[in-house]
Amino acid sequence: MTAPVRPPVEAGPGEAGSGDDDRRAVGRDGTDGGDDGREDADDRPGLVRWWSGLGRGQQALLAVVAVVVVTNLVLAGARSMVGGDPGGPASSSFSTGGDGLEALADLLEAEGHPVARVRDTVTAADLPVAATAVVADPQRLGATEAERLARFVAGGG
Hints:
By secondary structure, the chain is mainly alpha-helical.
């Protein structure tokens, strides 16, 4: 004996499978399981997951701390580039420290006296007859330089 074959039943309007039903099945967690554009918590990077787990107050506090740290780093970098305390090599006309001669060089230039800062060994070309030589640290002069300066002074310089 064969079982009677029933023809397929078409769904009516508003019934499941009708195609015009805009209701969705809702799971136990209250969601429909559809893609709402958010990633699952397990798919997010660790830092993002950690940050989103913090409360607003904690996020605000961490943001303020981060701004303070970044500001201190920027200011420390600027200070190292610009310089902080006055200083420089002793007896240098570029040094702004207590044992430097930057102020003297600036004063002479402000009063209209040309200033030539010699960094290398003194030569005869560095000592024109009408010039004035200032030796701030004579202990550092070599024998040849001392002899040139002595000739310069004896010649009227």
